[in-house]
Design goal:
Helix content is 44%, strand content 15%. With 233 residues, it is α+β, with helices and mostly antiparallel strands. It has 2 domains: 17-98, 5' to 3' exonuclease, C-terminal subdomain (DNA polymerase, domain 1); 111-226, Cytidine Deaminase, domain 2, CATH 3.40.140.
């Protein structure tokens, strides 16, 4: 018998942490968790062992919030220490699933009967993008969604929009109403003077053709702005 007493092996500090975090989520839902803890749950699905708290915190610190991290481009995600290609892919899949669910809410009802669903969908799809996108929801005479199309993608602070092309596409789809949507990557959804001028031009071209512009919504990290709500339509 050896004269040396075998010491018990120390468990890693994160032992049991995953199950405790899952239990908190089961009992309290996402509201019971901080952003980095919700991100840990996402990372658990790709990183089966080890401590993921530090990369989760690094993602939130780098992008500012859980929502912004989930919407970040894959190449930016990979720059965060502890985040590889599989993690970036998994985050992209979850983001795509969230977009599909939000879009389904809009498709299943008349758009004007589910306005909050429209806002939620637009913010989920575009609110945290790093470039401007100009999107149009084309509606029929019952205000049901015919098509949802991103017409243009621009830079961090500008998207070229061609009003006559917008109306041309509406006529091709036999749309009788439109909801214009774009995002401000700066986070501030307040409309700019060019936004206002462009919207007025589209309305002026659309009106004689019997096409109604219901609203122009701008989304960003800090919320959304509605042209109709602001009295600009």
């Amino acid at each position: 018998m050896s004269g040396f007493e075998e010491r018990p092996q120390r468990m890693p500090h994160y032992h049991g942490h995953r199950e405790r975090l899952r239990e908190r989520f089961r009992k309290g839902g996402p509201a019971a968790l901080a952003d980095y803890e919700l991100m840990e749950l996402v990372l658990f699905m790709t990183i089966p062992r080890g401590d993921v708290k530090e990369p989760a915190k690094a993602l939130i610190k780098r992008f500012g919030s859980f929502a912004e991290a989930m919407a970040a481009p894959a190449e930016q995600l990979r720059k965060v220490e502890g985040v590889g290609g599989r993690v970036a892919d998994n985050i992209a899949i979850i983001k795509a699933a969230a977009d599909r669910i939000a879009r389904g809410e809009v498709q299943e009802r008349r758009v004007l009967d589910s306005w909050q669903g429209v806002i939620d969908y637009c913010r989920t799809a575009m609110g945290f993008a790093d470039k401007e996108h100009f999107r149009i929801l084309f509606l029929d005479k019952r205000n049901a969604l015919i098509a949802d199309e991103v017409q243009q993608t621009g830079t961090v602070d500008h998207t070229p929009v061609y009003p006559r092309e917008v109306i041309k596409r509406a006529l091709e789809l036999s749309a009788t109403a439109l909801v214009l949507v774009h995002n401000h990557p700066s986070g501030d959804p307040a409309p700019s003077d060019p936004d206002i001028r462009m919207t007025k031009t589209i309305v002026e071209i659309a009106e004689p053709l019997g096409i109604v512009v219901h609203d122009h919504i701008i989304v960003g990290r800090k919320g959304h702005a509605s042209f109709r709500g602001l009295g600009l339509l």
